[in-house]
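Incident log entry.

Two folding requests arrived from the same account within the same minute. Monitoring flagged them as a possible duplicate submission, but the sequences differ. Recording both here for audit purposes.

Request one:
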Amino acid sequence: MIAVLLAALALQSPVPATGPSAPSDGIALAEAASQAAATLDRMHQAAARGDGAAYFAQFAPDARFIGTDASERWSLDQFHAYADPVFARGRGWTYHPRERALTTAGDLAWFDEILDHDAYGVLRGSGVLRRRDGVWKIEQYVLSFAVPNDRAEAVVDVIREAGEAP
């Protein structure tokens, strides 16, 4: 039953999978989406456990992490420099995925997810995964604050006051 539901959802994908490595039917599309989603789940779970090795194993070697601060556009090496000391203390960060939209096309997948965080509230994660040698890896992850439109002006004012926006 679950496979049928996943297949039906995969068939609703706005971009059909094409190319030599593309799944050939709805079941295969659903399996690809499930495997890509599992990579994101492993990343979140490893971060919550403070397991840096498992966390970074979910990323491609040339991945980018774009954080909430405008200065946080990091290569994987730069992100290691930030995160490794945190993980070394046995700590991490916990984002609880609330909902996720994920689309696959051949060896590429893109996603956006709504996340809950105890201190920061609602955030959004988005990015791209690529299947390399049969394994899904995160190529880019973007973490952003979800600012309600009716509060956006106040947030921009705070950023301007800090001298970080025009």
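Request two (distinct sequence, not a duplicate):
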Amino acid sequence: MTWIYLFLAGIFEVVWSSTMKLSNGFSHLGWTILTFIGMAISFALLSLSLKNLPLSLAYPIWTGVGAVGSIIIGVVFFGDKLNLLTWFFIILLIIGIIGIKLTSGH
């Protein structure tokens, strides 16, 4: 269950970062409320995962899942343009996340 909590925490990081973009500097109430709800859920799930995982493992995976997910949302829904070299480094980030998980012993 710990890894599910951590993965879902990363997904909710994507939710709150995306709704923060949609809130337009917290000027749209509905998106602002969803941003804070997403933050609360993300932090709560991260907290649950930290009961059984070391911080040095959980935090980088949480931020990595959130970063990669936010990149994908930015490209697909917000029209962000990334060059080939940027995609190369995103792939390295994904490899790093997988590597941390595989070598953690948890």
